[in-house]
C-alpha cells in the first residue's frame, strides 16, 4: 500500500519535468521512507519516526524550491505518503496489540515488499 505508492511515485518523478534538485530531494526522501518501512518490521516505529522527522527538517530547508512546485500533483502525492506514514506511527504507538493485522492492511501483505 504505502510501499507501492512510494515505488509508483518514484517512477512518476523520474519521468517528470521537475527541477533536477527537487527530483533528487524527493527520490532521496522516498528511498529513506522505503527503508523505514522495511525497518519497521524489525524495529517498530523508530525508523518511520526518524524518516518522518528528517523529511520534515529537509522540507523546511528546501521551502523555497518546494513552494515553487507545491501545486504539482507529484508534490501532493509525496505529502500524502508522508502524512500516511505519520498516521501509521500514531496508530502503531496507540494500538500495539493490533499491529499484525494493521501491518497487512496499511503496509501491504508482504508480497509487495522485498524479501
Structure explained in plain terms:
- This protein is mostly helical and 115 residues long.
- The protein has one domain.
- The chain is built from 6 helices and no strands.
- Helix 1 packs antiparallel against helix 2 and helix 1 runs antiparallel to helix 5.
**Principal-axes shape call:** elongated
Distance linking N and C termini: 16 Å
Give the helices and strands as they follow along the chain: HHHHHH
Structural class: mainly alpha
Low-confidence stretches: none
Q: Average pLDDT value?
A: 86
Task: Write a short abstract of this structure.
By secondary structure, the protein is an all-alpha fold.
Topology:
Blueprint: H1 2-14, H2 20-43, H3 46-61, H4 63-69, H5 73-94, H6 99-107
Helix pairs in contact: 1-2, 1-5, 2-3, 3-5
Core attributes:
mainly alpha
